[in-house]
């Protein structure tokens, strides 16, 4: 430990010099720069606080739709009337309509731009995918007309259709027009998509999960005009709100579920089914509306005629439905903020026992938990459907996977995977079905935010629930990958690499880090709820989210958005070195004794040890008259003069300064290194000599003057034996080997194996062995 000539000098060197070094040595970057230049300029539509402005507007699209399901040909025919209301200040000479089924057209952009690589061995399925599909997919638009039947000029550009209006649509005006169409439904297990059918060979029945089934209005907004980016597969949907009335004609023995509320229950349900539905309203557990026995009986029946089911939904951005004679149907009503919500599930017998036990209970739990963390659920129903689609969301209805084995058994992974996907897809009712972000542009705004609340909901379902995403430790492997394999979160949906990690896992983790480490739960929860409240039933952008989170918490988060969302930097903080100091008391009886002990504790060098043996006598030993004062002088011996100087020194100090000389405070200078580039708060665990521990949370602003290296002085009353960064794995630190000082070995194990294997015969030997074997087989047996 260094010995200082005075207390003042000691403290000046200890405190002033390292702080000056850390704060005045710039790393050449500014990770704390504000985001103003990267965010759109605030205006009267969207304010700098992140809230909708006084002149905020959004368009509206109302639909009346009639579709018919052809169960023999697996096809749909439909007609619709769209009423489009222009609430913008702009005059619109044409409208853009989305034709998302054209993703399956043989000439789609997606098919043309699929990338692949060949190897020496290629599976049949991969070749099938590379070859031209035989499936005749895509919308067949049969007519686009005005309400009086006059044809409207329209142009189809892949997944977009422009409809030219006879007269330009001015502000506050509405226009209605009609579209007739048909298309073939894809076999979802062969041609993967967000909807489709599944065929069950044993009972020769079909199960349909139907979405993107009608031409849908694109969004026209204040920040980008028409959202007419083509649908390529990853970037999902941007849609305006409106009211829907949809009539679905299906085989008479089918059970149909859909977005919205059933309008003609008396015409399509039996009296028993209606009574069961009424019973389910106040039930404490799910009530079977259609039992498994009844569904099995329907599976073996012969379809006779059709039924038309009519559903209505208010203020939704989309509509989806399902249909099958295989469906078991259960329901349970809950109250959410005083409003009734019917939670329901539709599933074939192949989903039991998992689905009957868990699905509707999970739906109810999800509605309650999401409502707590965001806004109260406003819709009258919430439905989970089991079929071929692994997971996809629509207003009030979602498609979910998770099927047990044929014998009814299932693994823990299958159980929790099913519960998680139901939570996730039902949760999408909040993001983006209510908080209506642009999925076509920013997948993370719905998937990332939703995955974060999914994590909170999973943890409230079961203690220590095995969540796949949310905990910082679970994103480390991704953030540790080569940067060429990553893209920033703020990347368009179609250009994202490692889609699940980037659009789901990383933003969800980022929000968890904000909640637990940067902001704290109270500030975060209030700000997150404020965002949901501000943008419910509206179209938020990333800037609206970033600004609201800061505005409602008074926490400057520009550094966080910049690092986590705009870069591929990773968190890797290191303690490179630790220096230990304490105060020089200036008391010679204390300090000289300390130095004497230090000297005595110094080991003899190798040369000193050998000299003691080899050199029997020195010159001075032989000629003692060569000795003088310094041969007997002990510089550490305390003299009266030393004591007099110490007494004189202390008389000039205040009582507080005199006390400071006598205290036993320990000073530790930590050299901290930001290896990964992502500035983060420093979570420091101190372990004391007596075994006790302390956590110090040092705000991220520690790095503001130098983003790469800083020194930090920590003072303690007890001696510290070790320092550890991020002991509770809360910052997604990608390298824990440099987090401890003194360094701690990283525990691992290796596997032993037997190295000597029988040598394989060469081709000549192999041929000889084969010949010998053949001769032995040809030799007749002795009888």
Can you offer a commentary on this structure?
With 783 residues, the protein is α+β, with helices and mostly antiparallel strands. Among the domains are: 60-436, Sandwich (Immunoglobulin-like); 584-599 and 617-662, no CATH class. The protein has 21 helices and 30 strands. The protein has a seven-stranded mixed sheet with strand order 4-7-2-1-13-17-15. The protein has a six-stranded mixed sheet with strand order 16-19-20-21-23-22, with helices on both faces. Strands 5-6-3-10 form a four-stranded antiparallel sheet, with no helix packed on it. Strand 11 and strand 12 (225-226) form a beta hairpin. It is elongated. Residues 763-774 have a biased composition (Polar residues).
Brief overview:
The chain has 783 residues and is an alpha+beta fold. Among the domains are: 60-436, tricorn interacting facor f3 domain (Immunoglobulin-like), CATH 2.60.40; 584-599 and 617-662, no CATH class.
Annotation keywords:
783 residues, alpha+beta, Immunoglobulin-like, 7-stranded mixed β-sheet, 6-stranded mixed β-sheet, 21 helices, elongated, disordered N terminus
How are the SSEs placed, and which strands pair?
Elements: H1 7-24, E1 60-70, E2 75-86, E3 92-98, H2 109-112, H3 124-130, E4 140-146, E5 154-157, E6 160-169, E7 173-184, E8 196-200, E9 205-210, E10 216-217, E11 220-221, E12 225-226, E13 242-251, E14 255-258, E15 261-262, H4 265-268, H5 271-280, E16 287-290, H6 292-299, E17 306-316, E18 321-324, E19 328-336, E20 339-347, H7 354-373, E21 381-386, E22 391-394, E23 397-400, H8 412-427, H9 444-461, H10 476-479, H11 499-518, H12 521-535, H13 542-551, H14 558-566, E24 573-582, H15 588-601, H16 606-614, H17 619-622, H18 629-632, H19 640-651, H20 655-662, E25 666-674, E26 682-688, E27 693-698, E28 709-716, E29 720-725, E30 740-741, H21 763-778
Parallel strand pairs: 1-13, 20-21, 21-23
Antiparallel strand pairs: 1-2, 2-7, 3-6, 3-10, 4-7, 5-6, 8-9, 9-18, 11-12, 13-17, 14-18, 15-17, 16-19, 19-20, 22-23, 24-25, 25-28, 26-27, 26-29, 29-30
Helix pairs in contact: 7-8, 7-9, 8-9, 9-11, 12-13
Organism: Hymenobacter coccineus
Keywords: Aminopeptidase, Hydrolase, Protease, Signal
Signal peptide: 1-22
């Amino acid at each position: 430990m260094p010995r200082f000539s005075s207390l003042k000098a000691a403290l000046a060197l200890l405190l002033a010099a390292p702080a000056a070094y850390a704060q005045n040595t710039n790393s050449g970057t500014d990770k704390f720069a504000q985001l103003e230049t990267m965010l759109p300029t605030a205006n009267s539509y969207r304010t700098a606080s992140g809230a909708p402005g006084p002149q905020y507007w959004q368009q509206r699209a109302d639909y009346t739709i009639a579709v018919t399901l052809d169960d023999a040909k697996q096809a749909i025919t439909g007609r619709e009337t769209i009423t489009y209301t222009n609430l913008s200040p702009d005059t619109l000479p044409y409208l853009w309509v989305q034709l998302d089924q054209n993703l399956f057209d043989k000439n789609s952009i997606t098919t043309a731009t699929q990338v692949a690589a060949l190897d020496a061995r290629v599976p049949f399925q991969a070749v099938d995918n590379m070859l031209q599909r035989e499936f005749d997919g895509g919308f067949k638009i049969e007519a686009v007309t005005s309400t009086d039947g006059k044809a409207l000029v329209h142009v189809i550009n892949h997944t977009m259709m422009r409809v030219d209006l006879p007269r330009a649509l001015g502000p506050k005006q509405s226009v209605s027009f009609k579209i007739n169409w048909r298309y073939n439904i894809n076999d979802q297990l062969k041609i993967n998509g967000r909807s489709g059918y599944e065929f069950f060979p044993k009972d020769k029945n079909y199960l349909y999960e139907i979405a993107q089934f009608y031409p849908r209005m694109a969004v026209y907004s204040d920040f980008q005009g028409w959202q007419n980016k083509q649908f390529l597969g990853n970037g999902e949907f941007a849609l305006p709100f409106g009211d829907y009335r949809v009539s679905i004609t299906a085989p008479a023995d089918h059970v149909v579920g859909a977005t919205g509320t059933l309008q003609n229950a008396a015409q399509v349900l039996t009296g028993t089914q209606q009574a069961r539905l009424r019973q389910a309203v106040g039930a404490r557990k799910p009530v079977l509306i259609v039992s498994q026995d009844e569904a099995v009986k329907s599976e073996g029946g012969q379809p006779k005629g059709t039924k038309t089911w009519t559903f209505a939904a208010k203020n939704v951005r989309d509509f989806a439905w399902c249909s099958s004679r295989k469906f078991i149907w259960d329901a349970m009503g809950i109250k959410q903020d005083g409003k009734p919500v019917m939670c329901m599930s539709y599933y074939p017998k192949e989903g039991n026992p998992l689905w009957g036990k868990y699905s509707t209970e999970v739906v109810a739990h999800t509605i309650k938990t999401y409502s707590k963390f965001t806004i109260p659920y406003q819709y009258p129903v919430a439905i989970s459907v089991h079929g071929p689609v692994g997971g996809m969301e629509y207003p009030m209805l979602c498609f979910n996977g998770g099927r047990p084995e044929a014998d009814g058994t299932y693994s823990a992974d299958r159980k929790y995977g099913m519960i998680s996907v139901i939570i996730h897809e039902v949760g999408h009712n909040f993001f983006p079905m209510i908080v209506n972000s642009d999925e076509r542009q920013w997948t993370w705004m719905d998937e990332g935010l939703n995955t974060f609340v999914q994590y909170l909901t999973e943890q409230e379902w079961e203690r220590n629930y095995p969540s796949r995403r949310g905990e910082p430790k679970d994103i480390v492997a991704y953030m540790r990958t080569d940067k060429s394999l990553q893209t920033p979160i703020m990347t368009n949906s179609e250009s994202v690499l490692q889609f699940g990690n980037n659009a789901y896992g990383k933003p969800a983790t980022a929000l968890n880090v904000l909640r637990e480490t940067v902001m704290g739960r109270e500030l975060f929860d209030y700000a997150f709820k404020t965002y949901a409240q501000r943008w419910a039933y509206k179209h938020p952008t990333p800037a609206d989210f970033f600004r609201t989170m800061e505005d409602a918490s008074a926490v400057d988060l520009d550094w966080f958005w910049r690092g986590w969302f705009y870069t591929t930097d990773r968190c890797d903080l290191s303690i490179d070195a630790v220096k230990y100091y304490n105060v020089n008391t200036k008391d010679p009886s204390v300090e000289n004794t300390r130095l004497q002990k230090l000297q005595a504790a110094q080991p003899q060098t190798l040369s000193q040890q050998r000299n003691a043996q080899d050199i029997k006598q020195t010159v001075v030993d032989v000629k003692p008259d060569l000795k003088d004062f310094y041969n007997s002088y002990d510089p550490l011996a305390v003299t009266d003069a030393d004591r007099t100087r110490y007494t004189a020194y202390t008389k000039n100090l205040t009582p507080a300064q005199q006390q400071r000389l006598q205290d036993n405070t320990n000073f530790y200078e930590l050299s901290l290194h930001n290896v990964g580039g992502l500035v983060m708060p420093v979570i420091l665990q101190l372990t004391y000599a007596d075994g006790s521990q302390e956590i110090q949370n040092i705000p991220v602003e520690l790095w503001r003057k130098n983003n790469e290296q800083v020194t930090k002085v920590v003072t303690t009353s007890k001696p510290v034996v070790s320092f550890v960064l991020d002991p509770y794995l809360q910052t997604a630190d990608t390298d824990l080997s440099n987090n401890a000082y003194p360094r701690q070995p990283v525990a691992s194990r290796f596997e032993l194996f037997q190295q000597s294997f029988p040598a394989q015969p060469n081709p000549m030997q192999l041929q000889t062995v084969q010949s010998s074997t053949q001769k032995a087989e040809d030799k007749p047996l002795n009888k």
